[in-house]
Specification:
Blueprint: E1 3-7, H1 9-18, H2 25-35, E2 39-42, H3 53-62, E3 67-71, H4 75-84, E4 88-91, H5 111-123, E5 127-132, H6 136-144, E6 149-153, H7 155-181, E7 185-189, H8 197-203, E8 207-212, H9 214-223, H10 225-235
Helix pairs in contact: 2-3, 6-7, 9-10
Bound molecules: 1-deoxy-D-xylulose-5-phosphate and the ligand NCC(=O)COP(=O)(O)O.
1-deoxy-D-xylulose-5-phosphate (DXP) binds near residues 9, 131, 189 and 213.
């Protein structure tokens, strides 16, 4: 079974637009869980333009499924994660000024750094995941860091889907087979949507979890959050 973790960054973006508490991020997280969502993902960025560090602390108190915090392990992110102790931390190598995540880790080049950070989180009892491109060398080197899982960065699949989905999914299927062989759990995310997620799930083996935010919240504007969560759950069966 593949779990759906809903990324609620975009709900925080909307809230922050007016400075008040509408929409209420904590209520949205609780509602998503009551609709069947199996996890909540947040990606606090250093400028706190959507998720604020305080949101992570508040969400920890109310999320009853699984809290996944994503981000670049700069010192203040590491401190936040160690304080909040989410179920999972996903390390993403994004630049401070990145509009959104735009690359996976070079796990060969940053192996020593990743080993150290992963060791710190694992000692605190937090499951770890590393955001990587679908490249078997990067997946194999990820295993050497001691991480529990990888998250496959799916933007290239989402871009290819309309033109040539067979070609677009092939590197992900291969990366997932490699990850499974070297003992890593497999998550995936970025630009997955109601259109493209079913084919991905059908063609990428051993997929434990997808985290989906941008498309899901956009789709919910037309279809409703409850309905959309359930449409994803059906596609992930
Ligand atoms: C790691 C990843 O691909 C997503 O978490 C993405 O980072 C969403 O972040 P934004 O909502 O800031 O685009
Ligand atoms: N890890 C990916 C994620 O949380 C959501 O990415 P997106 O669906 O907002 O592109």
């Amino acid at each position: 079974m593949t779990k759906l973790s809903v990324n609620i960054n975009k709900i925080a973006t909307l809230r922050n637009a007016r400075g008040g508490n509408m929409p209420d991020l904590l209520k949205a997280a609780r509602d998503i869980e009551s609709f069947g969502g199996q996890g909540i993902t947040i990606h606090p960025r250093p400028d706190e333009r959507h998720i604020r560090y305080q949101d992570a602390r508040d969400l920890k108190k109310i999320v009853s499924t699984e809290l996944n915090i994503e981000g670049n392990p700069i010192p203040k992110f590491i401190d936040l994660v160690l304080e909040v102790k989410p179920d999972q931390v996903t390390l993403v190598p994004d630049a401070v000024d990145a509009i959104t995540s735009n690359a996976g880790w070079d796990t060969l080049r940053h192996k020593d750094f990743l080993k150290e950070v992963i060791d710190t989180f694992k000692k605190a009892g937090i499951r770890t995941s590393i955001f990587v491109d679908p490249d078997t060398r990067m997946v194999e080197a990820a295993a050497d860091t001691g991480t529990d899982r990888i998250e496959l960065y799916t933007e290239s699949y989402a871009l290819a889907y309309a033109q040539n989905r067979e070609k677009g999914v092939a590197p992900f299927a291969e990366a997932a087979e490699t990850a499974h062989k070297v003992g890593l759990g497999i998550n995936a995310g970025h630009d997955l949507s109601l259109d493209n997620v079913k084919y991905f799930k059908e063609n990428v083996p051993h997929l434990l979890e997808v985290s989906i935010g941008h498309a899901l919240i956009c789709e919910a504007l037309y279809l409703g959050l409850d309905n959309v969560v359930n449409m994803y759950l059906n596609r992930l069966k």
